[in-house]
Amino acid sequence: MSCIFCKIASKEVPSDIVYETDTVVAFRDLNPQAPVHILVIPRKHVSGIHEADGGTGLEELMLSAAEVARREEIEDAGYRLVINCGRQGGQTVDHLHVHVLGGRAMSWPPG
Ligand code: AMP
After folding, report:
1. What is the rounded CA–CA span in Å between residue 23 and residue 84?
2. Domain assignment of residue 81, yes or no
């Protein structure tokens, strides 16, 4: 198992975990792009949204992202959820993850 996010989920690699359930883990991004930048991942390895299926737990993943935003107190001001997919989509870690970004105004379109 060489996946860095699997190692974070199993706590083999340290990270700043802010929320976890039986099926998801949320931790602060090492290179934050906003005052709040948290990654929410399924514990079960799936390389990206393109490989997700009915057993991936996408509903819990997205609801957990919203719960993280609530706990970080960015819900009222607003925030952004991002899933990068594949190389041109900007995905650099091949384990499905939702970015929770907040604490500043976001621009559109994203770069
Ligand atoms: P993406 O480019 O969408 O695949 O996002 C991968 C994210 O993982 C980037 O924002 C990285 O800063 C972040 N990242 C990579 N390694 C770690 C790590 N060990 N702990 C926390 N965040 C990480």
Report:
1. 21
2. yes
Q: Residue 60 is which amino acid?
A: E
pLDDT in tens, 42-77: 999 999 999 999 999 999 999 999 999 999 999 999
The total domain count for the chain is 1
User: Annotated catalytic residue: which of 37, 50, 95, 97?
Assistant: 97
Annotation says 50 is catalytic: no
User: 108 lies in a domain?
Assistant: no
Show the beta-strand stretches assigned E in 1-111: 17-20, 24-28, 36-42, 79-82, 98-102
Domain of residue 51 covers: 4-102
Name all residues whose Cβ lies below 6 A of ligand 1: 4, 15, 27, 29-31, 39, 84, 90-93
How many angstroms does the Cα of residue 79 sit away from the middle of ligand 1?
18
- pLDDT, position 50: 95
CATH code of the domain covering residue 45? 3.30.428.10
